[in-house]
Amino acid sequence: MAQTITRPSGSREPVTGTALSPRKKRSFLADLYSTAVGKKYVMAISGIALMGFVLFHMIGNLKMYFGAYELNHYAEFLKELLYPLAPKGAVLWILRGGLLAMLVLHLHAAWSLTVMNRHARPVKYQSPRDYEVANFASRTMRYSGMIVLSFLIWHLLDLTFGVVNTVGADGTFVREEVYQNVVRSLGRWPIAAFYILANLLLGIHLRHGAWSIFQSLGWNNPRFNAWRWAFATGFAAVVVVGNVSFPIAVLLGIVKV
Amino acid sequence: MKQLTDLKLKVWRQAGPEVDGYFESHTVDKVSDEASFLEMLDQLNERLIGEGKEAVVFDHDCREGICGTCSLMINGQAHGPQRATTTCQLHMRTFKSGDEIVIEPWRAAAFPIIKDLMVDRSSFDRIVEAGGFITAPTGGAPDANLILVPKPVADAAMDSAACIGCGACVAACPNGAASLFTGAKISHLNVLPQGQSERYKRAEAMVHAMDDQFGSCTNHGECSAACPKEISLDVIALMNSDFRKSKSKNRKALSRG
Predict the structure, then answer these.
(1) pTM of the shown model
(2) Looking at the 3D structure of chain A, how many domains does it have?
């Protein structure tokens, strides 16, 4: 009775056998990623990794309220994670590589899902839509995401590579002087405004994303469903309040060189 | 009984699948507020036929909200402004005299327009054919209660089975995704004991059939809000989780044959 039927790709015939043979001989992950549901899994898992990053990035930056020594020392500590078990910088580079991979996966999945969705409705509605529950956050995910991505590039050029930062008293950008670089950068009000705007958009992106993770991964249970929105809102609020406080603190002179 | 007067209709007219469509304006005078939306269109069609013009083509059958044949995007909302209501059960008391009502067909690549407001929804049949059934032995009806089903499980299966396959979820989805429909069809069998033997095969085959034709879910929730049977987004989470499991469990099952 172990009858399997092989379905030619694109066939539309009903399935009548007792077991379906696998569609294509591909590895588990490649097979999963080839589907929209699988891509949503990748969106969710890479989203969790990136959420972890933004949370700990915000917590680490809170050190600036303890002064220049604390923040610069913390930056030095990151390079020495697990030292002497691992060589200096090794763990940091592994984390950076993982984050970059997660970012690339997040972007690729978003890109290919968007293409798929455009193909699913080639002719748009000719009259205005009246959305009932789709909110600003859910409908602007790709735009808020792109603005946050452009902010990320600026942020790296500003505080990691110093290309768009103002230089210190000695005329050079010193990466290790994290605290001084932050104060010099955010002391320029247009830059501070950009940081605030980008972080508000990040919060909007996080609120829909953090809730969507549960749906995409199939984590659904009446016992905790009511908490999913609370978690998403709370997480987004914590990250945004922390991050937005930094430019405001610099502009108000609470954090100064 | 009150009469509505001077309803300004903008109705989508399209002679066939391959030709361009356009909005046609009509005024409907004197409609009972107890008339259903379709009866209002009947009135318009009777007048058009009397004038020797071609009637507006739209899908309808039972007119009591249980068959899933009627459709229509009314003022940018699938099945019109009233929640949990099919177009045939939408009554004209929802509107006011002098209102402008814009009527469009469902729009999705998988729902090609046949004529005017009528679309071909047989892409849903492809999904159900892929696994939306159980393989039961034929013969005499089994004794009632031979297979015990816990009450909450029976209720959950019934909630999913309420899906009438009207396509409002796809029409309302900004991405043209059929996740709510497919999720409902998967859930109503996958939670029941009778559906267990083909559970993962079903999830895999139906999700692949859905992927071939529709967009992807971005968790807007528009589908559930538009659904005349108020199917919950929970069915999408169950589909996602069963699809992931199917990728490993189906391989295990096949390796034993």
Answers:
(1) 0.92
(2) 1
